[in-house]
Specification:
By secondary structure, the protein is mainly alpha-helical. The chain has eleven helices and four strands; from the N terminus they run αααααααααββββαα. The strands form two sheets. The chain has a two-stranded antiparallel sheet with strand order 1-4. It has a two-stranded antiparallel ribbon with strand order 2-3. It has helices at residues 3-16, 22-31, 34-54, 67-75, 86-99, 102-117, 119-132, 141-144, 151-163, 197-201, 256-272; strands at residues 173-174, 180-182, 185-187, 192-193.
């Protein structure tokens, strides 16, 4: 059983099964290999952190800064109230390996698939990217961050994330003591609730032609003016700086901007060739 499959089963068991049967479910998961893959993931993160911290100042061999550069800078000497302990670094690395790589790869795969299935969109995007950069050296995070630049690329990524959410399963929260009301329904305390992104963003109640790949909806096309943008967490949906989160606010993913930046850079590098 692979790590992400094991993680999915553990998540489902925790959310759906009553507490009294969880111990039995956990034993079954271990028997199926979930425990082994989870341990392997933790050991891999630990090994990578130790290798990085063994380098001078915790820097990459090429000197290029990344997430780990800032983690290493704060935790190398482990002094002061804000420094990370080595155990905290291990824990952060496990999260970054999962949420910081798998989600970007999911969006990239979904976008490339949609572009290959829609040659017109691919041709338009390729023209936009190639007209914007003279060479590969011009492509980087600074150019990605410029508001209003390469609007069609932003629209393609937004539409790809709408059709193929990086996190398709709900990010559940437990109803507090006393219960609450959600969408007109009374929900008892202790219940687990969440928003199913895949179902929400593919519903005709929220998006016209919900099953179609239409990047133009993010560029203000009149035909899609009545789309319910609140159905999916967005920022500036028609300005060319759209950044979709992994799930709805106020539980919005804090890494969405960096994930979008990574996808923009990767797409530009691919299409510029």
């Amino acid at each position: 059983m692979g790590f992400f499959r094991a993680l999915t089963w553990v998540k489902l068991a925790t959310e759906l099964l009553p507490p009294r049967v969880l111990p039995a479910a956990q034993r079954l998961a271990v028997a199926l290999g979930a425990g082994r893959t989870m341990r392997h993931h933790a050991e891999t993160a630990k090994r990578l952190v130790d290798r990085r911290m063994a380098a001078p100042d915790g820097a990459r061999p090429d000197g290029h800064p990344d997430y780990m550069s800032y983690i290493a800078r704060g935790g190398a000497k482990n002094t002061g109230d804000t420094a990370l302990t080595r155990e905290e670094m291990y824990a952060n690395a496990q999260v970054l390996l999962t949420a910081g790589s798998e989600t970007v790869a999911t969006v990239l795969c979904g976008a490339v698939y949609q572009l290959l299935a829609h040659p017109g969109a691919l041709a338009r995007l390729a023209r936009e990217v190639r007209a914007a950069f003279a060479s590969d050296a011009d492509i980087g995070f600074a150019s990605v961050s410029e508001p209003g630049r390469l609007e069609y690329l932003q629209a393609v990524l937004s539409e790809s994330m709408r059709l193929w959410p990086p996190i398709a399963t709900p990010m559940v929260r437990q109803v507090p003591r006393g219960g609450c009301e959600v969408a007109g329904y009374r929900v008892p305390e202790g219940a687990l609730i969440g928003v199913a992104n895949y179902a929400t963003t593919r519903s005709e109640r929220n998006f016209r032609h919900a099953e179609r790949f239409v990047p133009e909806r993010w560029l203000g096309a009149p035909e899609y003016a009545d789309d319910d943008w609140d159905a999916f967490q967005v920022s500036c949906p028609h300005s060319g700086c759209t950044l979709l989160c992994s799930f709805s606010a106020p539980l919005a993913c804090k890494s969405s901007k960096s994930a979008c930046l990574w996808n923009c850079v990767l797409h530009r590098c691919i299409l510029h060739q």
